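WARN no homologs supplied; continuing
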Amino acid sequence: MHKIKRLNNKDINFPDPNLALREPNGLVAYMGNLDVETLLQAYKKGIFPWYEEKLQPILWWSPNPRAVIFPDSIRISRSLKKAIRNQPWEIRINTQFESVINYCKNLRENEKKGTWINSNIQNSFIDLHFSGFAHSLEVWLNNNLVGGLYGVVIGDVFCGESMFSLKSNASKIALVQLALLLKKYTKNGLIDCQIENEHLTSMGSENISRKDFLSHLENSDDKPNFWPNYWKFMTI
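OK structure emitted
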């Protein structure tokens, strides 16, 4: 088993994520920093930070397999279709990024599940947002923010980080709208879900190999950022 790389805080150089093949969940490195340039280098290599602030150093992961959602494979139940049609939902983009990440953090803390969105992660992703790489897709109802998600855009890949709901189905609606957005604005769009869970599987996520994910990511690197400045809600 290879030795996990300790990153130099001043000269970040991530290892080949394929070296994580034998590590549980794909741990590739530790330490380093959460600067915008560091985060972009990581995401372009299919690596993301995930750690507990009080107990661990910064940990960097590239799991194998990788959970993803192809836009054409988004799964919309009958009840969700009904919910989408029965309320005057509105989608806004990047109008309340800080609120979205704060809701994602606080809801998990309140549920006592713990959260990887610690204060350093939160501040770093806000910096990434103002640098133009992290984005929020927000679900509004009667002029109130009721759900949404945020993530990092690398080419035509949306690297999803977290989502939240203050009203039933709001996070599912956000995920559906993201899939529709990718389908409309990209040719080979992909939602990176990182690691599978029951909720994402119910929405159509599937596992692909790290090799296939990195290949998709590499082919997306030099493509224009598809993220629009405005998004009109689309019904199903």
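The two ends are 48 Å apart (CA to CA).
OK
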